[in-house]
Amino acid sequence: MIKPFRNLLLALAAATCALVTAGDDPTPLFKRKIAIHPAPMLEDVSGREYKFLVDPAKAKGTPAEAFKAVWTRVKAAAAKEGFTVTEKEKAPLKVEMTTKEYLDTADQALWKRGYLIRITTKYKAGIADANGKVTVKAIHEEVAKTLAAPLEVVGVKGEQECQDNVGSGPKGQLVGYIEKGASFSVPLDDLGSLTLGDFGKYMPELLKLGLPAGTRLISSKAYSYRVRPGYVVLPGTEPCGVSMEGWAMKEDGPIFLYDFSYGYEDLTLYESPETHLQGERFLSKVLRGELAGLALADDGKWGGSKVRVLMKRPIGQ
Description:
Distance between the termini: 9 Å
Number of helices: 8
Largest sheet: 9 strands, mixed, barrel
Helix content: 10-25%
Order of helices and strands: HEHEHEEHEEEHEEHEEEEHH
Structural class: alpha+beta
């Protein structure tokens, strides 16, 4: 049963958990997070991504047409609010296609244990790459538990990252959660029949979650159409790369969800407060302010997460 969101926030704050909300407090979200997690607790969180979910009914036409229309409106809204947005010189609206598969049991046992497995497959000229990028993420209610997750990759080269994610919450406030992830690339054939053991041979901690190695994982698959048209310019960091992505349930099928995101990778929450402040202001003033009409109708349920929409997991679940 879903608890009332107010009670959830109180419980999470008491436990120094992952979800923090700005509510009606004028204090910026990043300062609220620092108050709950003072230095050096979040030193390993070295990036931040801001996410805005777009209603596909408000972004009509083909993905290419929708991206162009949204990007044009973002540039105009940003200029009106005093922000600088720049565009790439070459092919800013070139559409890239991938598939993203999220693996879990039928009852989402991995999600309930704070883990997420994703396979990203690139396509070139309509042909899928033989290799896939596997990403395993730890997203626990308690920040300390997320940060402590080993996510150690064995047998192949792996890369780790840890970032803060910011999106829309109930009643229009900003909410955020911290995730830690590890990625590695392997031939898709090496993943066998997509059991937990097929992934556990590369990340053994998955086999310590109380599920048998033979547990069959079910794929929730999205066909992703994406452009990287330019940058949001924020003080104190390099220009922040923009991504716009649309998801369909089948190749060339209708888009059921779009998003707009931007971020940076080189700062902790304890550094460059003006960067974090202006990053939040761009989301609040430009996207959720000037362009509020583009927002997904129930975007406050998802915290900016497309995966929550796909997996039907609103905030608090």
